[in-house]
Amino acid sequence: MTEFTTFTLDVRDGIAVVTLSRPDQMNTFTPVMMQEVLELFDQTDARDDVKAVIMTGSGRAFCAGADLAKGGDTFNYNRRDASEQIVVNGIRRDGGGRVSLRIFQSLKPVIAAVNGAAVGVGATMQLPMDFRLASTGARYGFVFARRGIVPEACSSWFLPRLVGMPTALDWVYSGRVFNADEALASGLVQSLHAPEDLLPAAIELAHKVTRDSAPVSIALARQMLWRGFGANHPMEGHIMESRALASRGAATDTAEGVTAFKEKRDAVFPNHVSTDYPDLFDPEPEFR
Q: What are phi and psi of 69, to 5 degrees?
C-alpha cells in the first residue's frame, strides 16, 4: 500500500476521506501530488471496503492551483524533468488532465468538500467529481488567462457541460475569482455549508448515495452516465444500457435485490467491484 505524502487517506465505515495536506503551500498541485492521486484512485477502485471517495483540503485552501515555485518556468514543458512528462503521439500530456481522466474513470462516487480556495487545477480537478459541496467561505477561480496560459484538466470539456457556455466563457475569459454563492447559483456546487458542517455533510451524502445500492451497479451507472454525457445520439445510451442490463440481469446481485424486495428486507449484495465489475466499454485512449 502506497504511503502518500501530499494528502492523508482515512477510510471509515465505507467512506474514504482524502485530505490534501500541504496547508503551508495552500495544498498547491505538484507532480508528486499528481502521481499520488493517480495511485489513490487505483487503490480506491480495488478496495471493496471503499464505497465512495471524498476529497477535501487542510488549512485555508482546497487547492490553490499549481505550485509556482519554479516561477516563470512553472508551465514550460521544455524546462521540466523528463521523469515528470508523459508524451503520447507527440503530445506532452497535461498533469491535471491525467488526474481528471482518472477521476472520470473512478468506479466509486467522488465528492468534493471544498473548504477554501479552489483555483486553477484546484477548481478543474473537481469537475469530473460527482458532487461538489462547498464551505460558505470557499472561493473559485479559473485563472488561466491571467497567468498567460489556457484551461487544463479537461475543463474545456467539463465546464461548459456543467454550468453552460456563457458562464464558462465569463469565468475563463476574465479569470476572476468568485465566491461560493456564485458557484451555487451557477450549479457548479450543489450546496453550501458552514465550515464545521462541510465534511459531515459530505459524509452524509456519501452514505445516502451508496448505503442501499449494489456497488457494482453504482460503478456501472457512474460510467454510463458520465460517458453518456458526451454521447452524440440516444442510441449510444441504448446500446450501453442494453449491454449493462444483460450483464447485471444474470448477476447474483440482481437475484438478491429482487428477492429482498419481495421479502420486504434489506438486500445484502454479494458481488464486489474488485472481482465482478464487467468490462463493457470500448477501450479508452491511454490516459496515464
A: -60, -25
> How deeply is 40 buried, as exposed, middle or buried, from its count of CB atoms within 10 A (0-12, 13-18, 19+)?
buried
Rounded CA-CA distance 47/166 in Å is 40
Measured N-to-C along each axis, helices 195-210 and 215-228 cross at an angle, to the nearest 10 degrees, of 110
Query: Which three three-digit cell numbers place residue 287?
Result: 490516459
Nearest 5 degrees, angle CA 169-CA 173-CA 175? 115
Residues 6+ apart with CB under 8 A from 220: 244, 247, 248, 277, 278, 280
Domains and CATH numbers, the chain: 7-210 (3.90.226.10), 215-276 (1.10.12)
Answering whether pTM is above 0.85, one says yes
Each residue's pLDDT tens digit, 31-88: 999 999 999 999 999 999 999 999 999 999 999 988 766 666 556 566 666 666 676 6
2 in Cβ contact with 13 (< 8 Å):
no
- Residue 67 confidence (pLDDT): 72
67, 96, 92: which is closest to 81 by C-alpha?
92
Neighbouring-strand partners of residue 11: 16
Instruction: Please state the rounded mean pLDDT for residues 154-177.
Output: 98
Which residue in this structure is represented by grid cell 476521506? Answer: 17
Average pLDDT over residues 161-173: 98
| Interatomic CA distance for residues 239 and 282, integer angstroms | 12
